[in-house]
Amino acid sequence: MTKTIMLSVFVFFITLAQAQKVEFTEYDLDNGLHVILHQDNTAPVVITSVMYNVGGKDGPRDRTGFAHFFEHLLFEGSENIGRGEFMKIIPANGGTFNANTSQDRTYYYEIFPSNKLELGLWLESERMLHPVIDEQGVETQNEVVKEEKRQSYDRPYGKFLEVVGENLFTVHPYKDTNIGEMEHLDAATLEEFNAYFNKYYGPNNAVLIVAGDIDKEETMKMVKAYFGEVKPRPEVIRDFPEEEPITSTKRVKAYDANIQIPAIIAAYRLPGQATRDAFVLDMISTYLSGGKSSVLYKKLVDEQKMALQAQAVNLGQVDYNIFALLALPLGDVSLDTLLEEIDEEILKMQTELISERDYQKLLNQFESRFVSSNSSVAGIASSLATYYLLYEDVDLINTQLELYRSITREEIRDVAKKYLSPNQRVEIEYLPKKEDN
């Protein structure tokens, strides 16, 4: 047995030993709030988190960015928490907190010493039950969001996803940037903000996760005490328009004053993240650019020295995934040349099986990623919420690794052939400044 094979076998069995099954209990309150509990008494830490089924894709298209805005706004305070006190109470009690928003969901969480569990539940119930949404809070957070946009979006390649979204989608709301248009937020009225909260922030449009050093029976009593009185809202009905399949190559140009080096992007609109093909495409993107030994980086950056960067991204979303190939040229290398070199590797995947060695490397990478995602109480809580709300299968926290292991080299070849042809994509020349007429 070679040293390489021995090492792979060793890593495989170590990973298996570490990948302990995550036990959880789930149930619904009468108001429709879904609750998932995970008990792990190995450390005196607990996380309380709520994921709401609302993201950048939701709401009127002349009021984009509301979901992200509420991520900030709902830290302002409530009828029982003074303005600005939310973010003081948590660290004063030994805790940390954060929130984030995607096109599909908004996630809030606090991590506390386990003797502060009741405090965490109270804070999240206050956010859901009666937050203060007023002019002062809106004005304050409007400036916060604008500053975040300047720092995160108005920087080199910060508009990558915005450029891809607006060119890959024509009718689905994924075409709009998640952070939203600042003029939409400026024009919004207080009544519109309150209406948005009332529509999307009901208990029956959310999942509560409590994970860590808990007693399940006592936790269930506290959850009912703090969240049971929240009244349900009408069911959120979504009827987004479907995109027509891309059947011929679309070539466009996009300009960004914040970049100096151009880029070529080949973007594909693919089935949503819960489909089996999406998991296969995860493996394909990792094969192409999962580290410095990956196919594209090794070829274009290390060996041929044609690119400063080369990457494949499979961005998981509920309705449509985005699969994007990206490269930045080195020197005078043309964007078309980079794309041709990338396509050469895609064609190999479509006509040949990847090597057994590369396949085992992929499995090792996904096993390591799987173990890492479940190595902390915060990671477990996030996974439980995500798998319930976005995949409709909480047990993926235990079965996802087996799913990846079941994907064969033949399936990788067939999925690459099915989705990654030039006539199924948008090719974007991402350029530093608009050309003179």
TrEMBL record:
It comes from the Bacteria. Residues 35-156 form the Peptidase M16 N-terminal domain. GO terms for biological process: proteolysis. InterPro entries: Metalloenz_LuxS/M16, Pept_M16_N, Peptidase_M16, Peptidase_M16_C. Residues 1-19 form the signal peptide. Residues 188-365 form the Peptidase M16 C-terminal domain. Keywords: Hydrolase, Metalloprotease, Protease, Signal, Zinc. It holds the Pfam family Peptidase_M16. One of its GO terms (molecular function) is metal ion binding. Belongs to the peptidase M16 family. This is Predicted Zn-dependent peptidase. It comes from Psychroflexus sediminis. The lineage of its organism: Bacteria, Pseudomonadati, Bacteroidota, Flavobacteriia, Flavobacteriales.
